[in-house]
Write a structure and sequence with these properties.
Largest sheet: none
Strand content: under 5%
Structural class: mainly alpha
């Protein structure tokens, strides 16, 4: 039994009621008369009896509560669901949740705008690349190759299979292509 309440940071250890030092006993005897001591002891006994009675009443009420809930079909799982639902609604109505929600919404809008701008920039770059002379030259060569293949495969007098026509067109196309790549540096071309 504690002689006094202590906080978490108190450095003095707890003492049991019968661990009084001689100075504590002398102090309590000199301050308190025997009559006062008996009154306090009597009040303590009454309080302990009341606490015991209240515990019994509480246990009886909790038992009755359980019986009533059982009759109504209220299960512990249903109660848990209701508590979680109420907790969720309480949380959604809190100012912290509202502020967080607004912040995330704003961040989402800014992210959407940034991605839209990025998409437009990429689209514009592809358009610029498609209009570049290198890409047009490549496009013309592909169109020429496709039309050659169609002509050779589609004409009745053309000899050979599709593979033969494709390889001859590839050889002709490779003779028209420059020998260096666009990514080659001047040192590599020499």
């Amino acid at each position: 039994m504690e002689t006094r309440q202590q906080g978490f940071l108190d450095s003095e250890p707890l003492r049991e009621a019968d661990e009084h030092t001689t100075s504590d006993v002398n102090l309590s005897n000199s301050i308190m008369t025997e009559e006062e001591r008996e009154e306090i002891q009597l009040e303590l006994t009454r309080l302990e009896d009341e606490i015991s009675t209240l515990k019994q009443v509480l246990a009886s009420k909790e038992k009755r509560q359980g019986e009533l809930k059982h009759k109504l079909g209220i299960t512990p799982l249903g109660e848990l669901r209701g508590n979680l639902s109420r907790g969720w609604l309480d949380m959604q109505s809190s100012t912290a949740y509202k502020r967080t929600s607004e912040t995330l919404s704003s961040a989402g809008q800014k992210t959407t705008a940034a991605l839209s701008t990025l998409g437009s920039a990429i689209n514009r770059k592809f358009g610029d690349m498609r209009n570049s002379p290198s890409f047009r030259s490549f496009e013309e060569k592909v169109e020429s190759t496709v039309s050659n293949i169609k002509t050779k495969v589609g004409s009745p007098g053309a000899g050979g299979s599709f593979e033969d026509v494709l390889s001859s067109t590839a050889k002709a196309s490779s003779q028209d292509t420059p020998t260096h790549n666009l990514t080659d540096t001047p040192e590599r071309m020499e």
